[in-house]
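Encode chain A's predicted structure.
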Amino acid sequence: MQNMINYLLSKYYQKQGQKLLTKGHPLRAEKCFRKALIRSGAVEDKFNLGLALMSSQKYEEAAKFLEKVYQEYPENMLNILSLAECYLMLGKWQQAPLLYKELLQQQPQNKTFQKYLKISEDVVAREKYVKSKQLLNSAVVDLEKKNDKIALNKLLEAEEYYPESPTIIFNIGSVYILLKQYEKAYEYLEKAVSLSPQNKKFHKNFEFVKRKLRK
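Encoded structure for chain A:
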């Protein structure tokens, strides 16, 4: 009976954590995933907790959980990609490229993996990438606090470091929506869609802006 209760509770906390993480509440998500992990010990909860910690910029601790997942499932590409990101943000310049090479062994033609391998091996590019991510993460915190203009300035600075990041470009466009500057929002969201044409959220915001400009 106790095992069944723990199982149900772990699934409940796992589901709540995923919702919170999707909505941009990593700290609350982290608490849920920790509760789920205590009750289950499941590799899925280790991975989810790692993602939540990454979202809170707790890369050192995130890497520890993702490394545990890697030990159990060494070919899981999503986990390898997340762990490589942690290594990049921690300045572990030798480990990160090795993981991107592992990913390319599984998918040699994957342009995303090729791009990140190139960044991780380039002294200047990787420093710019890390700086852009730090600014992006800081901007997300400002957005949660409704400091839209401060967030925008950080995102624009992040764009200077990494102008081809669809996430940064999308967030700039989204902030311009909040500021009701729809022409600028259109410019950035159009670029975000071109950089990541499969992203439904990008398309949704872009369509919203187009409707606003038609009025």
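Residues 125-215 form a domain with the Serine Threonine Protein Phosphatase 5, Tetratricopeptide repeat fold (CATH 1.25.40.10).
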